[in-house]
Amino acid sequence: MNLQADVSPGGATPGTAVSKAGQDAIVVRFAGDSGDGVQLLGNQFSQETALAGNSLATFPDFPAEIRAPTGTTYGVSAFQINFGSRVIKTAGDQPDVLVALNPAALMVNYKMLRKGGLVILDSGAFKDRDIKRAGFNVDPRTDGTLKEFRVLEIDISAQSLEIAKPFGVSQKEALRTKNIWTLGLVSWMYDRDMASTMEYIARKFGADDPIGKANLAALKAGHAYGETHELSGDVAPVSMPAVKFEPGTYRLVSGAEALAWGLAAGANLAGLEMVLSSYPITPSSPILHILARLKQFGITTFQAEDEIAACCAAIGASFGGKLGVTASSGPGIALKTEAIGLAISTELPLVIVNTQRAGPSTGLPTKTEQSDLFIAVFGRNADAPIPVIASHSPGDCFDVAIEAVRLATKYMTPVMILSDGYIANAAEPWLIPSMKSYAPFKVQFRTETEGFHPYVRDPKTLARAWAVPGTPGLMHRIGGIEKDYNSGNISYEPANHQKMTDTRFAKINNIADDIPEQGVEVGNTKGKLAVVGWGSTFGPISRAVHNMRDQGLDVSHIHIRHIWPLPRNLGQLLKSFDKVLVAEMNQGQMLTLLKSQYLVDAKGLLKVSGQPLKIEEVTNAIRAQLGS
Amino acid sequence: MNVTVPPDKLTAKDFASDQEVRWCPGCGDYAILKSMYKSLADMGATPENTVFVSGIGCSSRFPYYMATYGFHTIHGRAPAVATGLKLARPELDVWVVTGDGDALSIGANHLFHALRRNVDLNILLFNNEVYGLTKGQFSPTSRVGQKSPSTPMGSIDSPADPCTFALGCNARFIARGIDIQAKELGVLFARARDHKGASFVEIIQNCIVYNDAVFADFTDKDVAAEMQLHVKHGQPMLYGKAGNKGLRLNTQALKIETVIVGENGVTEKGILVHDEKNRVLAGMIAALRPPSFPEILGVIYCDPAATSYEQAVAAQEAQARAKGLGDLDKLMRAGNTWSVT
């Protein structure tokens, strides 16, 4: 049987006809114990796939536990990649291939595989005890559990041990090469050039390290196994043609990387140095890790004692004339809210990155959700508006971060970026931008003493003057107590509080004049149905709307980047559709926002399973809305 | 002798803002504020390079009355805001003004970390053993039995001691003064400012409305001499009107006891000599409190570290930047990339 054969529609690309000779996308899911190195396997395979010119999207899906007990289902770590010769927008609804490195990995994942899909098993990991531990009563290879799939059993454990041992590594180290052996096999299956992985191994271990040598040998052995064991009877290598991308230089980028670089780029365009002040939290920590290595970019990183201190130190840095940034996730954002209010009251620039995760409370720390829209827009005591911007893909985080810095410095306000766990960890091919293509927005600190008080405002933007300590003649005091509009001194005057509240409100509202009008991603500016999304649901909505339009349905896709203030034309745009469907990974937060702002009778496609939205879920909802 | 004052020499008045001071009449904060005006002028500080950061509470209104830069932040968080400011602008003189509730209840965590990191901040804790601005509840330094709106039958909380707390946080400069002792406070302010790293000064401050005279047993004029010991580095720890009372170390019990020189064979040689670099000694004397002992005042501990926190941060950054500033275009193109033509 050939991998290209037996591909049923409704698999990776619902609604797309896939011919036997020309499957244009494949979804592979790697799964194993959390100590098996599945994420590394997935990332390296993604790298090889990207370098081969395919389009791709990835979905690392791992548990919160670092090393759960071996062989348990809750310790299973998975990595899904969807790659193809057409533009890939999601990590795929259903895997075509599942690589399961132990019974628990099979248990957790086999049901999501499409019928007729291929299961590759490490038979060496299927001892009775492991099978029972995974929750199978009987060996799933023998009782018909896998009858709807093709199964390829290889004793990957034994193969890895045998190949690695001569390098003088321990039994444990030898067995740990099995992820790399598997990568060799899968690289053979998809005709991948393994040079980038070889370089990676050499770089990680050093050329002379026995563990490095063992891994290199395992990589080659896995590849050779495919060639020499005549697996082609079952799985002939597939060569996926490259996608016709726009010309330029590309790389794989994760959301966390693009966001960190975007912050650095934003600070650079503003002519500011940056102080990133954070407290470790999943899934936000990579932003701190990445920026901690970029000190040569005028970036100071500070790991604070808690989330509150992290936000406060960022505010202190902004008071001092640098760009204060703090990055966190839901529970951490909740802790920062009082401090964000201080930055609103003192009108200091501050960028807050919220990499959303499933909640409430601790929730599912490694799983994704979009349920912090309310806390972003409304979640502070009193009337405390701030701009909120959401990124829709890993690469998009770069531009969103720059936009956040621009708004924060131009309007002297905190700005919240909404990313999520899926975007932060997922990777996609990214056309690397040139810094020359961005217009600088250099900050001008106040130095003129004439007519100065701390709340003297730019008449157009309403932003207050940014005068930093150390500037002669501009000594002033700011703070969370209400200030007089005309002098910046403490004021308890009723009329003044009204005026200051109105001014803070107007300042943020006016930003709507400084952001693009809402466009339509797919389809028309009017019609029967608009599917509205924001953030990481971009991929599945976009693909689903494309597919449904191909089938002749009148449906369009609107994706909102500026969550607050909303684009000026959004209400009008929504009203030009008969029906509005808001698809989001929460209980209807954007839905409520749009209803309250525009009185539109929108419906919701709402999902909070900790898993990304699927294309099929969106297409089903579109069909239901349009009664077809 | 005629001293020529340079025309640009600032005076105490130059550090006072134009805002009306709004503490209760007779509040100890007035005296501290006045001492600060004078001290800054005496130290040759410049208003534009001086910043006062505060939290919430009576004492935290302090920045509004200074003609320097100031930031009145949120409850308990002043050390965190000040740390960020100092990271951004290490060259500034950054003062933190806080109270016993602000620093030791809601903000104890931040105080702990600012002290242990050794950020070059001058932290002044006004200790009046009560929550003033919220109308008189007991605070973390209130004594057991203190009656207040929230403790009508008396407080049952064991109080925290600011100076021993600071020592436990590995603070490298710890001092204690009294609100009305302007001259002594001025010395402490100058020493705190000169100290590179976190400086911690507890200021005993009388709240005339909610906790009046709680320190009277050692601050009242008629008992002050008998109940205050102003320690000085290298000097024997003597006190009392006649200067013949002293502290002695009982080495067998490993505790400090009060003695009178000239009585029971006690000579001045037997009196403890203050060594502000001795952390163990600092711990012992900081914990002595009236009525059994005199109140210990002055610089209790001062042992600067080789570098302060923001200096260490700057050193790492300088090391990273030694090879030149980063180039974003290069950074994003490093590693595995591919070209599409």
- Regarding quaternary structure, what we see is heterodimer
Q: What class do helices, strands and sheet pairing of chain A give? A: alpha/beta
| Gyration radius of chain A, in Å | 26 Å
Radius of gyration of chain B (Å):
23 Å
Spans of at least 5 consecutive residues with low confidence of chain B: none
Q: What is the approximate shape of chain B?
A: globular
- Summarize model confidence as the mean pLDDT of chain A: 94
Describe the fold and architecture:
Chain A has 628 residues and is an alpha/beta fold. In chain A, 35% of the residues lie in helices and 18% in strands. Chain A is built from 20 helices and 20 strands. A seven-stranded mixed sheet of chain A has the order 9-8-10-11-13-12-18, with helices on both faces. A six-stranded mixed sheet of chain A has the order 2-3-1-4-5-6, sandwiched between helices. In chain A, strand 19, helix 19 (589-598) and strand 20 form a beta-alpha-beta unit. Mean pLDDT of chain A is 94; it is low at 1-21. Chain B has 341 residues and is α/β, with parallel strands linked by helices. Chain B has helices at 28-43, 78-88, 100-106, 108-117, 162-168, 182-194, 216-219, 221-227, 279-286, 309-321, 328-333; strands at residues 50-54, 69-72, 93-99, 122-127, 173-178, 199-204, 228-231, 238-239, 245-250, 255-260, 295-302, 337-340. Chain B has an eight-stranded mixed sheet with strand order 2-1-3-4-6-5-11-7, sandwiched between helices. In chain B, strands 8-9-10 form a three-stranded antiparallel sheet. In chain B, 48% of the residues are buried. The model of chain B has no long low-confidence stretch (mean pLDDT 96). Classes of the chains: A alpha/beta (628), B alpha/beta (341). Strand 15 of chain A pairs parallel with strand 2 of chain B.
